[in-house]
């Protein structure tokens, strides 16, 4: 099911955003982020997240476009139960390059990065939640979806999912989201790349 971006609920609404029938464009605010405790010792819950309710299992995917150039610039999908249990996944700029990044948070955050493909100014991210697990896949073209991460994630009766973006070191990142959908959880085999 294709999603109307105007039907979502903002957590930390950005000062500048626009949604129409083709997508959502947002500009990040100053020093926005999602993180809990690990390594840095701080908790931040100030990133921009446009939330859509789901049931206990689903697959969501979205196309992300932007010019990620400053340390920790990031954009992608967030899945959230509450402020202590959430996942954000998508692009994150670190060590002078764009990587695909996932932060799984259950009281405290972890962080993993990978680089299955170099060009990350236009990509797609897919998240499937079912039976206490989260499957994260990424795609350059929307046809081939290699696995990015498989992680435990608390089973719940409901989740919120949607586009998220943060700029912990600045403001002014412009991100465009499109092709956003939420559907029943896919049941393909783990190594099926379709």
From TrEMBL:
Pfam family, one: DUF1349
Protein name stated in the entry: Regulation of enolase protein 1, concanavalin A-like superfamily
């Amino acid at each position: 099911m294709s999603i109307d971006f105007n039907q979502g609920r903002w957590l930390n609404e950005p000062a500048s955003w626009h949604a129409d029938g083709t997508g959502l464009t947002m500009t990040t605010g100053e020093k926005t982020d999602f993180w809990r405790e690990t390594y840095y010792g701080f908790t931040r819950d100030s990133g921009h997240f446009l939330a859509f309710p789901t049931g206990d299992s689903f697959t969501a995917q979205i196309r992300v476009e932007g010019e990620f150039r400053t340390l920790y610039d990031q954009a992608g999908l967030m899945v959230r139960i509450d402020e202590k249990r959430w996942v954000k996944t998508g692009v994150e700029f670190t060590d002078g390059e764009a990587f695909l990044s996932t932060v799984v948070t259950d009281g405290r955050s972890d962080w993993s990065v990978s680089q299955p493909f170099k060009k990350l100014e236009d990509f797609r991210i897919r998240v499937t939640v079912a039976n206490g697990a989260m499957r994260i896949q990424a795609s350059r073209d929307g046809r081939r979806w290699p696995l990015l991460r498989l992680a435990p994630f608390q089973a719940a009766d409901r989740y919120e999912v949607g586009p998220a973006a943060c700029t912990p070191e600045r403001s002014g990142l412009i991100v465009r989201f499109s092709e956003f959908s939420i559907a029943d959880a896919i049941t393909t085999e783990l190594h099926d790349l379709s």
